[in-house]
Specification:
single chain, alpha/beta, FAD/NAD(P)-binding domain, six-stranded mixed β-sheet, 26% strand
Length: 463
């Protein structure tokens, strides 16, 4: 089945992914009125990922950091320039994308902004016992495990078993890892005391493991050192130079850089925040258009964000391996939301330039800095100033800066107001009312008479 052909003589543009980059590209192109756009995303919402850990730790409800795509882009849809489809792209052709139901969407120009997913460095079996955090579904899974660990501890009859349930391991000390660790300590020490009778939640242990020598490796050494000091001061057990070699349902094994042998950490709850890899569309771009992939599966793009040899295809955001001019040599563009937004805007402008027969522009990343919160009154902020200068903040002032910066960049006034109210309530009461978790549906058992024998055991996959 064929869909998405150009109407009124306008070129047909297909955009896959409505993250930060895809959303900005849609706005640029729809505002021009020069093209027809088909936006494809496998969810029906745009997600503000920098605050996703707050959903996982019950600080915010999901609607506070997300919004329906159709509502965000309702004016563009009403203009007749945009069609939004909830679907998944399962294959690419030279001039079309194939959806999960077999529909073929033709295009004159293709823009891919599907982001990244978790990377377990060849140990994909760890995903079942150490979930990562990229989607709302991931956040719900982690929230259920975190809250469930405290509930299980209340049911334990031995101290050793209870200690395992009250031990939490977070693998990876990037922004997501340190924010999860700091918030989890706050939950244990500020939110849950007096809610359990058989144990004191303040005795919970949060261990943050990092393979490199320091936390927040993207920050300057001074900012990284400040972050580690603040994490330790609030009670996080920080272990740098530790390489995880095995994870199971009862804990993990790791090696230390300066110590021989394998060490064991007993923790019934493990969260993965250590690595990412590009979405599977990167491999499809390589197969169909001859693109080069980097080690993380990202598409190596030309300076104008197009695929070399296929200028009708552009790749942005975490799916793109792009560089930006540096003081002495080109440097990699980081996988952060400001970079994705800037890529989306440039990709839209470059597409319009091609249609007008004008030369495209090279991508130049404007780095505004990096932020990470570590808990109440604890954060690090690194701002990039003119001529390579940097301004660093830590502690309370950095925490306040982080709060207002994230509220400012949220999608929609409603979300900003809701987040401000929730944060104010959490600040004064320490309560986290979003820690409600859904009950798993029990499987339906077939009715059998007493005379009927039980069915034989069958191994292997079931439909």
């Amino acid at each position: 089945m064929m869909a998405g052909t150009a109407s009124h003589g306008r070129p047909q543009v297909v955009i896959v992914g409505c993250g930060f980059g895809g959303l900005e590209a849609v706005r640029v192109l729809a505002g021009s009125g020069a093209v027809d756009i088909t936006l494809i995303d496998r969810t029906n919402h745009h997600l503000f990922q920098p605050l996703l850990y707050q959903v996982a730790t019950a600080g915010l409800a999901a609607p506070a950091i997300s919004a329906p795509i159709r509502h965000i882009l309702r004016r563009q849809i009403a203009s007749g320039r945009l069609i939004v489809l909830r679907a998944e792209v399962v294959d690419l052709e030279r001039d079309a994308v194939i959806l999960d139901d077999g529909t073929r969407i033709g295009f004159d120009h293709l823009l891919l902004a599907t982001g990244a997913t978790h990377s377990y460095f060849g140990h994909d079996d760890w995903a079942a016992v150490a979930p990562g955090l990229k989607t709302l579904a991931d956040a719900f899974t982690i929230r259920e495990r975190l809250i469930g660990a405290f509930e299980q501890a209340e049911r334990c009859t031995s101290d050793s078993e209870r200690d395992a349930w009250l031990s939490f391991a977070i693998v990876g000390a990037g922004p997501t890892g340190v924010e999860l660790a700091g918030t989890l300590v706050e939950i244990a020490r500020r939110t849950l005391p007096q809610e359990f009778r058989r144990f004191d939640s303040r005795h919970a242990r949060v261990v943050l493991l990092e393979g490199s020598p320091r936390v927040l490796a993207a920050f300057d050494p001074a900012g990284s050192a400040s972050a580690e000091r603040q994490l330790r001061s609030i009670g996080v057990d920080v272990r740098c130079g530790c390489q995880v070699v095995a994870i199971d349902g009862e804990g993990l094994n790791y090696k230390k850089a300066d110590v021989d042998g394998v060490h064991r950490l007993s923790a019934r709850t493990v969260v993965w925040a250590a690595g990412v890899q590009a979405s599977p569309l990167g491999r499809m771009v390589s197969e169909r258009f001859g693109a080069t992939l980097d080690r993380a599966g990202r598409v190596v793009v030309a300076p104008d964000l197009s695929v070399p040899g296929a200028p009708q295809v552009q790749v942005i955001g975490d799916l793109a391996s792009a560089t930006t001019p540096g003081p002495t040599a080109p440097r990699p563009v980081p996988g952060v939301s400001p970079a994705a937004k800037q890529m989306g805007r440039l990709a839209g402008r470059n597409l319009l330039r091609r249609l007008q027969g004008r030369p495209t522009e090279a991508f130049v990343y404007r780095d505004y800095g990096s932020l990470a919160t570590l808990g109440r009154h604890a954060a690090v902020v690194q701002l990039e100033l003119a001529r390579g200068a940097r301004w660093q903040l830590s502690g309370w002032f950095a925490w306040v800066f982080w709060l207002f910066a994230h509220v400012y960049f949220l999608i929609g006034y409603r979300n900003r107001l809701v987040v401000l109210i929730d944060w104010a309530w959490n600040y004064w009461t320490f309560a986290r009312h979003a820690r409600v978790v859904a009950q798993s549906a029990a499987p339906t058992r077939p009715h059998r008479t007493s005379a009927a024998p039980p069915p034989p055991a069958v191994s292997g996959p079931r439909a």
